[in-house]
Amino acid sequence: MSVLPDPMHHLLTAAEYAALGEVESGYTELLEGRLLLSPGPTPDHNLASGELYHQLRPQLPDDLAVVQSVDVDLELAPPGQPGFSRRPDLVVVHRGAMRRTRAEGGPFRASEVVVAIEIVLPDSRRTDSVDKRGEYADAGIPHYWMVDIADPVTLVACHLSGEGGYRALPAVTGVFALTAPFPLRLGLDRLV
Asked: What is the pLDDT of residues 93-117, one digit of tens each?
């Protein structure tokens, strides 16, 4: 476990944040150079994340991979400036990004992410639906899915539009099916 720098006297760059490795429990993201404290996931959150992973993995094209809870440098700040790093619940990335992170270390880059997925809980609703949605769009992540595990489970799929920002499709319950960015069917009722 790394010792945290004094956040009051030093705003972190994305590279400095990545170099920290695993830090004190609860610090999971970086926003404009400031470490964010987040509560640990709930059992329902972990169940949904694991089930999404197991449904996604066999349906992905060979050039894509799904990974749970990893840092993504949003590349919203120039090197040397206070950075932005988020930890989506799941990401779908190009396999080349997997090879790069194995060889170089560090986080995924926003430019390597095809889909960012957040599992929405009551205490993260605004962060996931407003803050992260805006940041992921600004970072150029083509697709963002918000999965709300309240009864009934819903999924809102967003994709970058030419108008700036994300365009959201209507919320889906039951079975989520799409053809882009890859053909997919998810049984949402199995997530809880």
From this structure: 999 999 999 999 889 999 999 999 9
Q: Where are the alpha helices (DSSP H) in the chain?
A: 14-20, 43-56, 95-104, 125-126, 132-138
Choose among 96, 141, 143, 146: nearest CA to 120. Answer: 146
Phi-psi region of 165 (alpha: psi -120 to 50; beta: other; left: phi over 0): left
Question: Which residues does 111 contact at the CB level (< 8 Å), separation at least 6?
Answer: 75, 140
Neighbours of 59 (CB within 10 A): 13
CA distance 42 to 150: 13
**Summary mean pLDDT of the chain:** 89
- Does domain 41-70+87-191 correspond to CATH entry 3.90.1570.10? yes
Taking the model in full, what pTM does it have?
Answer: 0.88
pLDDT at residue 23, as a whole number: 60
* CA-to-CA dists, residue 137 to 132, 141, 163, angstroms: 8, 6, 11
